[in-house]
Write a structure and sequence with these properties.
The complex is a heterodimer of chains A (about 400) and B (about 425). Chain A has about 400 residues and is mainly alpha-helical. Chain A contains 17 helices and 4 strands. The chains are: A mainly alpha (about 400), B mainly alpha (about 425).
């Protein structure tokens, strides 16, 4: 027994001794003395050293940062989301009040909440920038098509995160924007009604919808994102970063991940975090009146980039513009199945180049248009439905004079 | 000439009437065959002779309340419903299409009878009221057939209750019913009555409240003129008519110099400032200007009007600031039930101030203004605290950027050094 204790103490002493070297991992070990024991069973330290010591091709530079930025923002969303969930209560009676409490009473609650909102916007831009880099370097082609497909799926998951999270503040803007979205989904041919019914869980957006969106937002989608992220990293690691067109393999050993690439990541991360916090402090997401299905707000104020783009599309091109742009997005998904020629550059593929340019530039253009629209009144369909319910029939509108009663009403 | 009211009734304008009168009516035919015919005219021509020729009236009749109460064609038009041939059917006491006076007589045979109306909770004095009205005077005394009778306002076949939205006497339809005659220039000119009142009413404060806000407490034509006893109120009666709804304003008005004048040397009524059919609020910025309509510009009375205007302007401005402050607090996520309560209390005081302006008592108005200003200040105080917090959030960015740029500088410096060293740098873990 005494001997075993002495061995343990010796091992701890050795861990401390090793911690005196300047490396980051040793510092971590110093912070958690038990780590030394774990590491003896599982060679984590060795694996990390190997990973960090990995060399990246020399063409990997600043423009390869967007994927990392998206991942960073995803982690920001996870952390802020967990913090928000400590206080948020997903019920019709408490959601709005808990949001008010977070924004005004919880220390730094305002920052956590608005950082969550702004990160949800910036991550869409980061993913699109990452996609654009991959697209215009032709990196979606074999053998990296799986990486592209998984990446696009991740984009859809992020969009689903935003769509489900949009309702959670439970104010009038959130409520009626979600109502409009459910209305659009419901009108999709064949499956729309079933999907809208499944998501809404009621005949209109209600507490059932709030519960479902919350469950999707904090349970289903995080697991989906986690699985897809792991898959994405694995396939990226397997096939490596695509070389630029015309790159000639040399004996160049490339640059090490640590410290060169990691330092670039640190610089970019610091800037992205500072920008996100600045946006959160300078442009907080205003809170509307509490949600009520009995009263339409005068206008719907957008707080998410995807809603802005949709607004721009609906306002300029109408519903078919929205459908067309969505089709363009789906075309981007199946691109690796169509364009598998790794020899030709994009300049010799004008159709593919056109589709890509139309998608990325179109997104930015319609975002700009959508931002100009400060707020929109609820759609005519929604408004007229409410008005119909409130309407009081008049003699002209009513059916009192059916079957030739008009004459009868003249009197004898 | 119609005989005095005792022998007549008057079909109630508010079609809420009618009745199981069949029990009180004599049987149409004493024979078994006759009894078989005298069934519901809503059923079929085989069972009710009138329908053989007048089938077009059947549906209209079915929709009306008389159908429910068992009042049948021959109860008003006479004749023999058991007959299938015109000469026989239109024989006896057949009246055919009713003229205006006949209509009045027929309707009143039931509606002026308290014993029949009591069971439905309906009044039976409409004919007496009608006699006092201008309509009644023209029709009954002068025999002028331009004046309306019962069936001009109440559809004789599809007679509906006044709370039925399809009825011509439903609150939102009643002005259109009156307009059928009162917007007819050719009909009104001989009597020196102007037209266009209905359009004016639609755009007035009352019309907006009624048609846009669906506030059925707002008056239509009959709210001020009466229905069966319709007459324009005379000058001395106007404030009484308005005061039926605007009780507090009337009280304040009576306490003021204008109210004390009333009935004396210079009678004054609400319509002098607010107009009649196109009734509107006098906008705060037009109070002094309105005073100049009667008083000399620059005189003591007009100056008093300007002071009243200033008090109301200041109070309105306080209300607006408080309202904006509450909205701003909502946008920033504050719980504002207390502020909304204070705002509502201030609004209540503001309404009292609007009422008090009719007293022209500046001291009383100043007291209420102070209450409004106090409530507004409390609300704005909380909004200012919130604005300061928002400013502190911005100050928080200074350390954030200091820290971020520090990291960028240090990492950039390290990266630069690495690049200046041998390109074959190994990871140094």
């Amino acid at each position: 027994m005494f001997k075993r204790v002495r061995t343990w103490l010796g091992q701890i002493g050795e861990d401390i001794r090793q911690s005196t070297d300047a490396s980051l991992l040793s510092s971590m070990r110093f912070l958690g003395l038990l780590y030394g024991r774990i590491d003896r069973e599982l060679p984590i330290d060795q694996a990390l050293r190997k990973a960090w010591g990995r060399r990246l091709p020399s063409y990997v530079g600043w423009r390869h940062m967007f994927g990392g930025i998206a991942y960073l923002l995803f982690m920001v969303l996870v952390v802020t989301g967990v913090l928000l969930s400590f206080y948020y209560r997903p019920s019709v009676d408490e959601a709005y009040a808990s949001l008010q409490y977070i924004a005004t009473e919880v220390p730094f609650g305002w920052m956590i909440r608005d950082l969550h909102v702004w990160s949800a916007n910036l991550i869409v831009l980061a993913i699109l920038a990452h996609m654009a880099r991959v697209f215009f370097t032709g990196a979606y082609r074999p053998p990296r098509e799986t990486s592209w497909l998984v990446g696009v799926l991740l984009l859809f998951v992020v969009l689903a995160f935003g769509g489900t999270g949009y309702l959670l503040p439970w104010d009038q803007w959130a409520y009626w924007t979600s109502t409009e979205v459910m209305s659009v989904i419901g009108r999709t041919p064949v499956v729309g009604g079933a999907i809208a019914g499944l998501l809404t869980g009621d005949v209109f957006v209600s507490g059932a919808t709030l519960s479902r969106f919350f469950a999707l937002h904090v349970i289903v989608l995080p697991w989906a994102a986690f699985g897809l992220l792991v898959l994405h990293f694995v396939v990226v690691r397997k096939h490596g970063t695509a070389p630029p067109r015309g790159h000639v393999e040399t004996q160049d050993a490339g640059t090490p991940f640590y410290p060169d690439h990691l330092l670039r990541m640190v610089i970019v991360s610091a800037l992205v975090l500072a920008v996100s916090i600045s946006l959160a402090a300078l442009f907080p997401r205003a809170i509307g009146d509490p949600a009520t299905p009995f009263e339409l707000p005068e206008g719907l104020v957008s707080s998410w980039i995807v809603v802005d783009v949709s607004l721009g599309l609906f306002r300029t091109l109408g519903v078919w513009g929205f459908v067309g742009f969505s089709a363009l997005g789906l075309l981007m998904v199946i691109l690796p199945l169509v364009d598998r020629d790794t020899e030709k550059g994009l300049r010799r593929k004008p159709v593919v180049l056109g589709v890509g340019l139309l998608f990325f530039l179109g997104f930015l253009a319609f975002w700009a248009v959508g931002r100009q629209i400060d707020s929109v009144p609820p759609s005519v369909e929604i408004e007229s439905r409410i008005l119909e319910e409130r309407a009081i029939p008049t003699p002209e509108a009513s059916d009192v004079s059916a079957d030739g009663d008009a004459e009868a009403r003249q009197g004898p | 000439m119609i005989k005095p009211a005792g022998s007549f009734g008057f079909m109630l304008i508010l079609a809420c009437s009618f009745t199981g009168l069949s029990a009180a009516r004599p049987a149409v035919a004493g024979t078994a065959a006759g009894t078989a015919y005298v069934q519901d005219p809503a059923s079929s021509p085989q069972r009710y002779g009138c329908l053989i020729c007048h089938a077009d009236k059947r549906r209209a009749y079915q929709l009306g309340i008389h159908s429910d109460r068992g009042v049948q064609c021959h109860d008003c038009h006479g004749g023999n419903p058991t007959a299938f041939e015109t000469p026989e059917a239109h024989g006896g006491d057949f009246r055919g299409s009713l003229g205006k006076l006949e209509s009045l007589e027929v309707c009143s045979s039931c509606h002026a009878d308290p014993d029949q109306m009591r069971q439905y909770g309906l009044p039976a004095d409409q004919i007496a009221e009608l006699r006092t009205s201008r309509h009644g005077q023209l029709l009954l005394d002068a025999g002028n057939l331009d004046a309306p009778t019962c069936s001009d306002c109440h559809d004789p076949h599809t007679t509906l209750r006044p709370d039925d939205a399809r009825s011509g006497v439903y609150p939102t339809n009643i002005s259109a019913t009156c307009a059928r005659c009162h917007d007819d220039e050719s009909l009104m000119t001989p009597y020196g009555i102007p037209t266009g009142q209905v359009a004016e009413h639609r755009h007035s404060a009352h019309g907006i409240a009624l048609y846009e806000d669906q506030n059925f407490a707002a008056p239509t034509c009959i709210g001020c003129h009466g229905s069966h006893a319709a007459l324009p109120p005379n000058v001395g009666e106007i404030s009484n008519v308005c005061g039926r709804c605007h009780v507090n304003v009337r009280r304040a008005f009576d306490l003021g110099p204008h109210g004390r004048l009333e009935g004396g040397e210079a009678p004054l009524g609400c319509t002098d400032c607010h107009s009649n059919h196109d009734t509107e609020r006098v906008a705060t910025e037009r109070i002094a200007e309105t005073c100049e309509g009667c008083h000399e510009a620059g005189g003591a009375e007009t100056t008093l009007g300007e002071e009243v205007e200033q008090v109301l302007r200041r109070a309105a401005s306080e209300m607006e600031s408080a309202d904006e402050a509450v909205e701003e607090l909502v946008r920033r996520g504050h719980e504002v039930s207390d502020e909304r309560f204070r705002l509502r209390a201030a609004l209540s005081e503001f309404r009292r101030l609007e009422t008090l302006q009719h007293t022209l008592d500046l001291e009383q108005m100043a007291d209420v203004e102070r209450l409004i200003a106090s409530a507004s200040m409390d609300i704005r105080g909380k909004a200012e605290v919130s604005a300061e917090e928002k400013w502190e959030h911005k100050l928080f960015l200074i350390p954030i950027w200091f820290f971020a740029l520090g990291i960028v500088f240090l990492a950039g410096y390290r990266l630069r050094r690495l690049r200046s060293e041998t390109p074959d740098v190994e990871g140094t873990l």
